[in-house]
Design the sequence.
């Protein structure tokens, strides 16, 4: 890309890109003003104005005047204009070998992305067409993910809220641990886990073993007891993976867990930062450990392990790609249940094929997270297998084989868990805390994200008042539902 700077007729700086005029040769300020007033006309109240390659950034100041309550951001296609980045609230850089969809999502979040007005500087779309279109495709990915996450929150957040109430009503025994002084091994349920089982059995005591819930049945079938079993899924089917009480269960308050398991097992309580659960933990003075919210439990497991130890973390079964046959190592509790429903006109082969291709979208998102996240330390985090040929790499995360490790079998090395007492509180005290929280803006934003988005996007007071009234009605209905739940 060839950028040449020159003086415009009015004395201001102008430039060409690839021998084509990128800013006005006469008056670039007036050109920017015209763009801002005539082109940047969002049909909603934006929280973000995002401009693709604004060049010398004459439009930045005008946009801040026109949209004083919005973040003004840019996506750069070249670093030739970097000295003007200070004019923007946020600047992202893109090239053909990079992906910024996750960067956009991680920075803005789903609600702000769904309130983002996106425009290309006119010459960006005409002169740098290929790069401009690639950026638009990345932005679309981020917006589609945001829409999916928002609708998931809208549908499931209330169910997760009831999971939280059940958690605090039924939990009986808890534990935590100090810093773990040995390497941590995590198991997920990808097909590659199967070939690692013999090594896990042989070197079981060399590691603190964390099992992602879907891999628990594989370990149990091979008489391996993990130190922790992690479950974060709030969906009904998640509890199908959990059985037995010989392990300690690391659970978020939102997790879908059977009442029996909560009452009879030892729980390692987890809370997400800035969550409803965190507020309840603190109001009850209930001990807990922080976990990171993630689209996949494997991501939460990785960050949890890295926070529990200063040593290395290995991950088995982290395939993150569709497999030709079974999508999980066997036995898998959900596979057992699903196979019982196979019949002549919907055979197992059809079900497995559907599962294989329907999972690709989610798995790509998970791969991108592992590849792009800066919170994973590539120096301490490794994917481990028995010479498994993965379809995809995970960015800087190194793939190791068991024979790459220097291991000497340890006969016994038990991690000590702390004996923690649950604070005393009554059902009525919990009810009072819950009902008070429902009245707060924070909790309403969590439970009614779509309604809040409609309120915040409203351009007119009439539309805003209508959206506020609809939200108030839904909040009141939900409050009554909570009261009935406690009175049962």
Sequence:
């Amino acid at each position: 890309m060839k950028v040449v700077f020159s003086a415009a007729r009015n004395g201001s700086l102008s430039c060409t890109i690839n021998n084509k005029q990128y800013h006005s040769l006469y008056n670039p300020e007036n050109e920017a003003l015209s763009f801002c007033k005539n082109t940047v006309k969002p049909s909603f109240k934006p929280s973000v104005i995002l401009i693709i390659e604004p060049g010398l950034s004459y439009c930045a100041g005008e946009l801040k005047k026109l949209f004083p309550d919005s973040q003004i951001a840019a996506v750069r296609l070249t670093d030739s204009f970097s000295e003007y980045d200070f004019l923007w609230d946020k600047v992202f850089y893109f090239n053909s070998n990079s992906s910024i969809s996750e960067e956009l999502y991680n920075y803005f979040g789903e609600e702000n992305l769904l309130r983002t007005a996106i425009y290309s500087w006119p010459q960006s779309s005409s002169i740098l067409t290929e790069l401009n279109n690639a950026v638009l495709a990345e932005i679309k990915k981020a917006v589609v993910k945001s829409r999916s996450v928002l609708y998931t929150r809208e549908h499931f957040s209330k169910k997760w809220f009831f999971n939280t109430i059940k958690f605090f009503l039924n939990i009986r025994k808890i534990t935590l641990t100090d810093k773990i002084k040995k390497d941590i091994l995590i198991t997920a349920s990808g097909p590659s886990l199967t070939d690692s089982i013999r090594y896990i059995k042989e070197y079981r005591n060399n590691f603190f073993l964390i099992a992602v819930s879907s891999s628990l049945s594989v370990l149990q079938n091979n008489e391996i007891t993990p130190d922790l079993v992690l479950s974060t899924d709030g969906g009904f089917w998640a509890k199908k993976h959990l059985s037995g009480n010989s392990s300690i269960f690391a659970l978020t308050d939102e997790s879908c867990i059977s009442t029996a398991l909560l009452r009879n097992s030892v729980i390692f309580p987890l809370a997400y930062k800035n969550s409803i659960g965190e507020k309840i933990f603190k109001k009850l003075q209930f001990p807990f450990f922080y976990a990171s919210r993630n689209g996949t439990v494997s991501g939460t497991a990785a960050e949890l392990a890295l926070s529990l130890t200063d040593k290395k973390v290995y991950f088995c079964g982290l395939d993150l790609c569709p497999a030709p046959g079974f999508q999980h190592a066997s036995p898998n509790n959900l596979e057992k249940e699903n196979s019982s429903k196979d019949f002549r006109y919907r055979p197992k082969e059809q079900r497995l094929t559907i599962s294989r291709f329907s999972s690709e979208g989610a798995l790509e998102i998970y791969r991108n997270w592992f590849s792009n996240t800066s919170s994973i330390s590539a120096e301490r985090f490794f994917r481990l297998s028995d010479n498994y040929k993965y379809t995809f790499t995970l960015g800087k995360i190194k793939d190791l084989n068991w024979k790459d490790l220097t291991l000497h079998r340890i006969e016994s090395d038990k991690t000590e868990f702390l004996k923690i007492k649950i604070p005393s509180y009554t059902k009525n005290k919990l009810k009072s805390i819950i009902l008070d929280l429902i009245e707060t803006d924070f909790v309403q934003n969590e439970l009614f994200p779509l309604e809040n988005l409609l309120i915040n996007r409203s351009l007119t007071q009439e539309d805003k008042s209508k959206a506020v009234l609809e939200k108030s009605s839904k909040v009141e209905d939900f409050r009554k539902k909570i009261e009935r739940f406690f009175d049962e």
Summary: The first helix runs from residue 28 to 38.
